[in-house]
Design a protein that fits this description.
Radius of gyration: 19 Å
Number of strands: 14
Distance between the termini: 42 Å
Shape: globular
Largest sheet: 14 strands, antiparallel
Number of helices: 4
Structural class: mainly beta
Order of helices and strands: HHEEEHEEEEEHEEEEEE
Strand content: over 45%
Helix content: under 10%
């Protein structure tokens, strides 16, 4: 029964369904105005950062079943000036991977892997280019999105590396500061998350542009791999007929209320059950900052 349910739900949402955490950690606003005067913004992940998460599935007798691992890397990259006033010689290079683990392949009947790389302008924090590779069983899709910030238009191209058919191409207008499914994870960490407030986020994925709200729900102390820390809970409205994910569901994310602004926990609830995602390890290029 569960396997059949997974097969019906995942092809339209997976790996996006399971990895909606990528959409969300992981959203509209600007960075602190003081950062505009710096050559490289002093953000929590500016010094190079790697985060490892474990996802567990919980429903009925299937509790604490490992289903996926998430890995995020952030670093800076020097580039030549892009020619505009105030151009920064640095950009962020973000890399995200999610891979099926544990009993998931046996339950769902297939393995999945998603690899995303994004180039980001640090000021304002907005995506420049996204490359994505999705592998779901024998199905493979490679895509690229290029963001023209002068024209405010994103051009998305998708192809099957194993086929000779012409690629799918689409172009959409967007509003600033636009994010993708990976950059939005880091964009959230730059925001002033005040309990009781909400804000909107424009996001582009798979050739479409969305706008969804994020509510800042509560602040409390929680137990994490870092010890007991205060964290802020946010609820991005990703689900629904016009949402990023069209099926029913809800998502909550906890981000530490300190200078690290680390996403330490997320809970995804969908029809087939609940996915609990927890930070397992964090490290920095400068190991003096490692936990």
């Amino acid at each position: 029964m569960l396997r059949n349910t997974l097969r019906r739900w995942l092809p339209t949402g997976a790996p996006r369904g399971v990895v909606v955490f990528l959409l969300v950690l992981t959203f509209n606003g600007a960075l602190n105005s003081a950062l505009a005067q710096q050559a490289m913004p002093s953000l929590p992940f500016s010094g190079g950062e790697e985060l490892i998460y474990q996802a567990e599935f919980n429903k009925g007798l299937l509790r604490g079943v490992d289903v996926a691992e998430f890995q995020f890397k952030a670093d800076t990259e020097r580039v030549s000036s892009r020619g505009g006033p105030g151009d920064d010689p640095f950009i962020f290079r973000l890399v995200g991977d999610v891979t099926s683990k544990g009993l998931f392949p046996r339950i769902a009947g297939f393995r999945f892997h998603e690899h995303v790389e994004s180039k980001v302008d640090p000021w304002p924090f907005t995506v420049l280019r996204t490359s994505k590779l999705e592998e779901q069983g024998k199905r493979v899709r490679a895509s690229e999105a290029v963001f023209d910030h002068e024209a405010r238009k994103v051009t998305w191209t998708e192809r099957d590396p194993n086929q000779t058919q012409p690629p799918r191409i689409s172009a959409q207008d967007f509003s600033e500061p636009i994010q993708d499914i990976l950059t939005v994870i880091y964009f959230l960490r730059t925001q002033n998350l005040e309990v009781g407030k909400s804000f909107d986020v424009p996001l582009s994925d798979a050739g479409r542009v969305y706008r969804f709200s994020v509510a800042v729900v509560e602040r409390k102390q929680i137990k994490t791999v870092l010890g007991r820390v205060y964290a802020v809970r946010i609820d991005p409205a990703l689900f629904g007929e016009n949402g990023v994910v069209r099926s029913r569901g809800s998502l909550s994310i906890w981000i530490t209320d300190d200078s690290r602004r680390l996403p330490v926990r997320a809970q995804l609830k969908v029809d087939i059950g609940t996915f609990d995602i927890k930070l397992k390890r964090v490290s920095y290029r400068d190991e003096k900052r490692a936990n």
